[in-house]
Fold this sequence. Notes:
The chain has helices at 2-20, 27-31, 35-44, 48-72, 77-92, 101-109, 116-135, 141-165, 171-187. The chain is mainly α.
Amino acid sequence: MEQESRERLVGKATRLFSERGFHLVSVEEIVGGSDELRIAMHRHFPRKEDLVQAVLEQRSDDILDSIARRLEEIPDPAGKIKGVFDWHDDWFRTPGFAGCLFERALSEFGVHTKGISDVALRYRSTLKRQMAEMLRMLIPQAHAVRLALTYAMLLHGAGAAAQAHGNPEELVHDAWQAAKLLLDKTRQP
């Protein structure tokens, strides 16, 4: 029961934070009239920032696991890289997409709010590292690391544009075309 209450609290906070941001959502709004959620909040998250960190940790795990499952079916490294872009394309098209919580956290809390910024930066770093590992199968390591950083920026830009314009139809496609062009150019002797 206690774990279930914690999960409900994190789930509700995730939805509200995604819709309106971290600072605009109050703890009162998250717990509502539920004594169960109020108790879970006090027991598991003494500060709102602790809840924000838990939301980001859960989101990171969920996204990275979802991407990994998607890539399991893809045998070749270039296909896996495209699979990362395709995963983002699907995400940006979901009805509840309201931007990236990690970028929002860095924007609202900055990079010096320990815990929160650590999770957000670790997520970004993990995604870049995973793409670099895929790219190392195709190009030299130094190029793979730089290209993975560029790919992360392309995905970030596509996500920001999808949030701002609400029309992701061509965004990831265009980002992938740029990514593919850079990969092809790097692979040339």
